[in-house]
Amino acid sequence: MKLAIQFEMKLSFNLSSISLLLTFVFILLLNHCILENPKTNLIQLILGLNSIESSETNADADPEIIDSRDVIRVGGSIFGLSGGTIRLSLNDGLSLVDIAEDGNFIFPDLLEKQSNYSVEILQKPTAMHCAGSSTFGSVFEDDILNVDFYCQVSDSYQALQNGIIRVGSAPINPIIENPNSLPALSAYYSGSIENAGSDPGLGNLAKYNSPKGMETDGYYLYIFDETPGIIRKLDPSFRKVINLEIPVTKIEAMAIDGVYTYILSAQSGIRKLNRYHLGTGNFSTIAGGILADDMDGIGTDAGFSQVYGMAVSGSNIYTIGNNTLRKIDLNSKKVTTIAGSPGNAGNMNGSGQNVQFSGNRGIIMTNSKTILISSINYHNIRKVDLSTNPVSVSTFVGSPSGEMGYSNAINGIDSLLKSPTSMTADEDTIYVIDSGNFKIRKISLIQPYEVSDYFGCMKNPVPIISSGIATNELFCSLGDGSLHNPNDIIFADNKVFVSEQSKHIIRKID
């Protein structure tokens, strides 16, 4: 009995000693790690995440452990990198990562949930252009692992801001066509006038089938024919057109962030929001595909009934259609209606669901917090302020009451437009197709948003009878350029490009 008691006491003493020793060792290790990296936090040490340096290490992390944390990881992928290292910064230097080859990456430092993130390029190889996708947004419950970069060897690219080029200016004295590179087979920049088709080729040997929309990745132009759902890639230096193999039959809208082409496709009344990687060619569906109505939800639980335009900003895509403005979070794939309501057409300003939209054909983002939306029914352009909750909508230019007409004005809301459609922008000006007036109008982004003419001759509203034949002649002076049926407009390489849908051509203003 005495021997047993002595054994138990000795065992207890040994266990206590071991426990004290382990505690002492842990304190030494903790002190060493903090001295080595002052930014290290206790959660990272306990979970062993401070040493994570690549996505391969992170990919094996236990998802239950990750989900139980109040912090998340931020990462993505690199494609096309060569000739050096790219350095990325998370939240103004909170965390840095250097990448020397294609593959996945994850920042070593973690972010708290319910916060914001921003990733920027601090350093890249000389003569390489690297575009980023989902480079800023909000952090909710899940890791952000789709901050993707696509790099190309080129000094011709211009950086995109919210899907458009905001560096440089359109020509002050615009002249249409005037091809400045071979082959100059006719006056038209690309396509064969009134000769529909889908042939790739150079200059006017290429054929379009009612080119509907255009976007740019900072150098190339991407043009989609609504039917049969072909996307054409146009090299502006050589006027060379190739066809992209994308598995859709009909395209309703498109947006580009420099890495992905986002495509709203439709088939048998069912619409999907897809994305196509411009470098790898990978194609996937983000949302929609089952429902034919404007149901909010996540991924395939969401639906789209009509979409007339899209704009991309960071990790969000905004769509306009069926009298609603909707937001798609690319991280969570959540679709939310942020203004207007399905089928409730009108011109009422306000906030959230109290707003009315109608006949919207153009959408553009002038910055990450401001959206402009045009209306062919109410002949004005509305401004959406994303910084308020709910978002607020007001009249930007054109008649607040919806009056149509033609007049320029120093104060934007004193001007008159007629069925404005697509818009583009340079560093300080909006360019809008004023389709009812057969003109391109320009709008200063400086208050009070002056509206003036940029290009085109206005069509005579009264048919002129000549030799018994009625014609709608244009008010044009000798040498003036004119537009027939402009559908979309894009600013790129300090030039303006316009698609003429019914003529099956792309035109250039320089």
Describe this structure in words.
The chain is mainly beta. The chain is 10% helix and 41% strand. The chain is built from 4 helices and 40 strands. The strands form 11 sheets. A 5-stranded antiparallel sheet has the order 13-17-16-15-14, with no helix packed on it. Strands 22-26-25-24-23 form a 5-stranded antiparallel sheet, with no helix packed on it. The longest helix has 35 residues, at 2-36. The radius of gyration is 28 Å and the shape is globular. The N and C termini lie far apart (104 Å). Mean pLDDT is 85; it is low at 1-13, 34-67 and 181-185.
Strand content: 35-45%
Structural class label: mainly beta
Largest sheet: 5 strands, antiparallel
Low-confidence runs of at least 5 consecutive residues? 1-13, 34-67, 181-185
Strand order of the largest sheet: 13-17-16-15-14
Average pLDDT rating: 85
Write the layout of secondary structure elements.
Layout: H1 2-36, H2 42-47, H3 55-59, H4 63-68, E1 71-72, E2 74-79, E3 86-90, E4 95-99, E5 103-106, E6 111-112, E7 115-123, E8 128-133, E9 136-139, E10 144-153, E11 160-161, E12 164-165, E13 201-202, E14 211-216, E15 221-225, E16 230-235, E17 240-244, E18 251-256, E19 260-267, E20 270-277, E21 283-288, E22 297-298, E23 309-313, E24 316-321, E25 324-329, E26 334-340, E27 350-351, E28 360-367, E29 370-375, E30 380-385, E31 392-398, E32 420-425, E33 429-434, E34 439-444, E35 451-455, E36 464-466, E37 469-471, E38 486-492, E39 495-500, E40 505-509
Parallel strand pairs: 2-10
Antiparallel strand pairs: 1-6, 2-5, 3-4, 3-7, 7-9, 8-10, 11-12, 13-17, 14-15, 15-16, 16-17, 18-19, 19-20, 20-21, 22-26, 23-24, 24-25, 25-26, 27-31, 28-29, 29-30, 30-31, 32-33, 33-34, 34-35, 36-37, 38-39, 39-40
